[in-house]
TrEMBL record:
<keyword id="KW-0326">Glycosidase</keyword>
<keyword id="KW-0472">Membrane</keyword>
<keyword id="KW-1133">Transmembrane helix</keyword>
<feature type="signal peptide">
    <location>
        <begin position="1"/>
        <end position="28"/>
    </location>
</feature>
<keyword id="KW-0732">Signal</keyword>
<comment type="similarity">
    <text>Belongs to the glycosyl hydrolase 17 family.</text>
</comment>
<keyword id="KW-0378">Hydrolase</keyword>
<dbReference type="GO" id="GO:0004553">
    <property type="term" value="F:hydrolase activity, hydrolyzing O-glycosyl compounds"/>
</dbReference>
<keyword id="KW-0812">Transmembrane</keyword>
<feature type="transmembrane region" description="Helical">
    <location>
        <begin position="493"/>
        <end position="520"/>
    </location>
</feature>
<dbReference type="InterPro" id="IPR017853">
    <property type="entry name" value="GH"/>
</dbReference>
<dbReference type="Pfam" id="PF07983">
    <property type="entry name" value="X8"/>
</dbReference>
<protein>
    <recommendedName>
        <fullName>X8 domain-containing protein</fullName>
    </recommendedName>
</protein>
<dbReference type="GO" id="GO:0005975">
    <property type="term" value="P:carbohydrate metabolic process"/>
</dbReference>
<dbReference type="Pfam" id="PF00332">
    <property type="entry name" value="Glyco_hydro_17"/>
</dbReference>
<feature type="domain" description="X8">
    <location>
        <begin position="402"/>
        <end position="485"/>
    </location>
</feature>
<dbReference type="InterPro" id="IPR000490">
    <property type="entry name" value="Glyco_hydro_17"/>
</dbReference>
Amino acid sequence: MARLAGVLLVVVATVACWAAASAPGAAALGMNWGTQASHPLPPKVVVQLLKDNGIKKVKLFDTDFAAMSALAGSGIEVMVAIPNNMLADLAGSSRAAKDWVKRNVQRFDFDGGVTIKIDFLDDGRVVQWLDNGDSGQWTVYAKAVRYVAVGNEPFLEAYNGTFINITFPALQNVQNALNDAGVGDRIKATVPLNADVYNSPANNQVPSAGRFRPDIAGLMKDIVDFLAKNNAPFTVNIYPFLSLYLNDNFPLDYAFFDGGATPVNDNGVLYTNVFDANFDTLVAALKAAGHGDMPVIVGEVGWPTDGDKHAKSSYAERFYAGLLKRLAANTGTPARPNQYVEVYLFGLLDEDQKSIAPGNFERHWGILRYDGQPKYAMDLTGQGRNNAMLVPAQGVKYLSKTWCALNPNVKDLSKLGANIDYACSNADCTTLGYGSTCNGMDVAGNATYAFNAYYQVKSQEDSACDFQGLALPVQTDPSTATCNFTIQIVTGAAAAAAPALGGAAVAGAVLLALLQLLALW
């Protein structure tokens, strides 16, 4: 295969390369790397972290140039994203889809040229990566284009039908544009979907009764017919944690893989965990639609560690231990036994600026803390080593060991509530909520946590620790046995993250970049 060749230029969306689905078990494990953080780890640090832990595939949610540059030459396979807000344009015009494919795929689809993997999300930019074959002049990760993912969970019930009428036409136009460009035999369009697009009827709650949601059943039939016609996979996000979060009566043990739950008997087939049941409900829905053998990719699966009574490190450790063993053994599911399942864990790092509309847990999905430090034992190889720990991020630089605390000498606390509200409106206080790690502290503890969260988000600016005279900086760590009062990391290095190139290689890369950019515009 052509040597992986060096980075290059930014344009308008998101790009990448995807792994070969034939790789067995945990050896082909993928990881979601989100960057919605006030102080994200420098991309070079993250890439080294991925390599140190043997992670071979990564899925991005933005088109940060520094991140893509850091991934250049790493050998890590990359998947990135393009927005739902492009669906209307692509649905309404086959010309727009052809222009998009020409601009982002076809123009660079030649031996020794650009190889692109694309996924649709909520950002309109695109990054292009160049591969100059075996010249060895400069290095970037590259692989054949595999998928164009059209939209991201567009049929979520929470969207109230916003994308119902435009997703399928967009999918058709994109795939047809790929076909017309002569690359449709190897580049497939798909739609990443939430597991709420299928279910079992209320009077027969077993996986084999799975069907697509009644309000979109006809649409889903059209979509899977089209996917099958073009030999494309079905992509789904499955979250056993949400089964617990959304239903207080859901049996706890059924969310895990260690056999502690009462099985669900589906005509003699026993389901001991909700992941298998969910996956096979989809398989049944696909079968009912005439495509029971359609390949399925699990684009997201994981367990948060804070922000809810069920979001805790001990549960995350338990969940992943069971999942990873199954992936490594190619256990499959009852409907698809002894089969490899392509899975991307969600996610790599905590993100303190994610929307908490779904719940406070949204900022705590990481298998690592915000600073790249492990939260719990985890064996990514799936070999069941109980004390295995992930390799932590190396070279992380922290701000000074200074916290912002409630001034103990203040007597008038009449403005305390308003200042806490202000701090938590501009920083992450989700760990203070019910069932979370910092819940239950006294007024001083809550105030100090809120003030410090804001102070750290503001990179310890002097003016960020005043709160109308209620706060002051301290050098004594106010953390408790269960509640960590963070010190944020230094992030200036992120802007400097870029692959090192020799003088001649730099000149060649820059010239080629400029030529390609001019060709695009």
